[in-house]
TrEMBL record:
Location(s) in or outside the cell: Cell membrane
Location, primary (coarse class): membrane
Topology class, membrane: Multi-pass membrane protein
Site (Selectivity filter): 47, 181, 190, 196
Catalytic reaction(s) noted: H2O(in) = H2O(out)
One Pfam entry name: MIP
Sequence motif: NPA 1, positions: 67-69
UniProt-recorded name of the protein: Aquaporin Z
Keywords: Cell inner membrane, Cell membrane, Membrane, Repeat, Transmembrane, Transmembrane helix, Transport
Organism field: Lysobacter panacisoli
Site residues (Involved in tetramerization or stability of the tetramer), renumbered to this chain: 20
Motif (NPA 2): 193-195
Assembly behavior: Homotetramer.
The organism's taxonomic lineage, starting at the top: Bacteria, Pseudomonadati, Pseudomonadota, Gammaproteobacteria, Lysobacterales
Transmembrane segments: 36-58, 85-107, 138-159, 166-187, 213-233
Amino acid sequence: MIKRLAAEFIGTFWLVLGGCGSAVLAANFGGDGNPLGIGLLGVSLAFGLTVLTGAYALGHISGGHFNPAVSFGLWAGGRFPARDLLPYVIVQVLGGLLAGFILWHIASGTATFVVNPDAAGAFASNGYGTHSPGGYDVGAAFMCEIVMTAMFLVVILGATHPRAPAGFAPLAIGLALTLIHLISIPVTNTSVNPARSTGVAVFAGATAISQLWLFWIAPIAGGLLGGVIYRWLGQEDRA
């Protein structure tokens, strides 16, 4: 169990450092219009790559959740025991917080670094209303996070099914997360992962922290929904 928890800690750390790090350090590198900045497409790909590489490296040890919503969704889908939920969630959040801490210190290495806690997406944080990159309200943000997380779980459960092509699950999961970010960065800056949201919110200021509730409730609700849907779809496999 200790090694499984260590793998979840490292994997979540990698996801938050790689995904949020790309947003903070590289998305607008050199200013708007600079060809070196990776933009929305690059950040989306970075999140997908962290899951893909983390799953290949650590998935055989812990299952490669790296996300409390995924753990809850796998439990709802009958793939994960309830007794392991709390330990997994704790180490996932701790891994995200360590990544946020390290990213903060890296970003602080330049005199131009500043975080405006009232700005949308401050320090790669998630938000709604004035804290949404596109100004989307709380209802839109809530629906987006639920639906995106539910579909993420459907992909995860399907890609890891015994009848799915062996060895390709991390690729499908990483591409799914990339697609999710391409869709929802304008809405919430994309969470679908409470540990990812928490890891940067504590460094982004009061606004991000005050809106953090949505990025726990909606992704976990979406994960549970996705797990239940896929469990129903796969009932014939147990018949």
